[in-house]
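Lab notebook, bench 4. Still working through the backlog of constructs that have no structural model yet. Next entry is a single chain of 83 residues. Request: give me the structure tokens for it.
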Amino acid sequence: MRTKTKKSPDMIVLGYLSRYGSIGRTTAANHFDIYDLPNVIFRLRKRGHNIESEGFGKHLKYTIPKEAEKYRSKPQEKEIVTT
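Model written out:
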């Protein structure tokens, strides 16, 4: 019989951020019983994850920048041809 291994709060938050893009204190507390989200974010940042903060106070949420925006090509300027 296999026993279910418990994921660390760091892995839970990182997985949620990867899937949904952002997480707040309320979501972490209500869904995952993680009441020290700022400490989890601190540890993830220390390990090299790029996590940004948005908002202030109770409305603070943490986000991972969209990877697609980094690689999105800039619009090309149209060349004007005069004849």
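Notes after review: Residues 10 and 35 are 12 Å apart (CA to CA). Residues 68-76 have pLDDT under 50 and may be disordered. Flag for follow-up if needed.
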